[in-house]
Amino acid sequence: MTAEEKQSLAAFLDLAGDYLRDGYRRDHGPYEFTDGDAGGLREPAAPVAAGDSLERVAAEITACQGCGLSQERTNAVPGEGPEKPLVMVIGEGPGADEDATGRPFVGKAGQLLDRMLASIGLFRDKNCFIANVVKCRPPNNRDPLPDESAACAGFLARQIALLNPRVIFSIGRVPTQTLLATSEGIGRLRGRFTEYRGIPLLPSYHPSALLRDESLKRPAWEDLKTLRTKLCELDETYARESGGAP
Questions:
Q1: Sign of the torsion angle spanned by Cα atoms 148, 143, 224, 197
Q2: What string of DSSP letters covers 53-77?
Q3: What is the spatial distance between Cα 246 and Cα 243, in angstroms, rounded to a whole number?
Q4: Which residues form the Uracil-DNA glycosylase-like domain (predicted)?
Q5: Domain assignment of residue 206, given as a range
Q6: CA nearest 104: which of 75, 126, 132, 64?
């Protein structure tokens, strides 16, 4: 992806976010783009608007009619976890179990994700916030369409700004490509840190991919160890409680 293409995508996502928030156009950036897929978006951490909160974002998500997915959902799925997490896990979108419960990652893939995170001392009720790129289930678990991702872009950006996690853990191709504005495959992106708006971001495989292909479990475990090492560098409490880097 060229720098010009990235700029166009960023402008589109900014416009969508402004429209969904209150309809007023805001100044964004400055962005710094380079040609190629590895650079991704580079924007200073977004400021938190006065009066904004995770509860307000969740309420807006629940009431959102911004794309066709809202017409078929049972429940929107804003996300869950503590307000000051070490890690924000970002997946693609809700599945059937998530649509039924309004909670993220509660099906078989979610149960595997919980076990994976617990293996390095991360828990959704303690130090890890879990969310998705889109907040309503795409039919038949298909990939979100560009307009669907754009409709939720403002919500996700506000969640990241409010949470300000130490690390973002993007699981799967769709969230990784969305956050980094790249078309590069997850097999090449996984396991190495980049940044999203100044926050370290580590891509890895989606747990559902591990359920389909057991050969991916070993590289996924390597990614978890990479994540743990970074967290030990960033947070003394985590390093002490987790027993240090593996």
A1: negative
A2: -HHHHHHHHHH--SSGGGGT-SS--
A3: 8
A4: 78-225
A5: 3-242
A6: 132
Strand-by-strand arrangement of the 194-196 sheet: 128-132, 87-91, 167-171, 199-204, 194-196
What's the mean pLDDT in 86-90? 98
Average of per-residue pLDDT values in the chain: 87
Tell me the CATH number at 120: 3.40.470.10
DSSP 216: G
Q: How confident is the model at residue 62, as a pLDDT? A: 97
The pLDDT, as a whole number, for residue 49 is 82
Nearest to 197 by CA among 46, 21, 86, 47: 46
Backbone angles phi, psi at 28, to 5 degrees: -130, 165
What's the total number of domains in the chain? 1
Q: Which residues of 186-198 are buried (b: 16+ CB within 10 A; e: fewer)?
A: beebbbeebbbbe
By the 8 A CB rule, do 196 and 209 touch?
A: no
Rounded to the nearest 10 degrees, the angle between the axes of helix 3-21 and helix 146-163 is 80
- Report whether pLDDT(25) > 90: no
How far apart (Å, rounded) are the C-alpha atoms in residues 133 and 157? 10
- Examine the pLDDT at 77 and tell me if it is beyond 50: yes
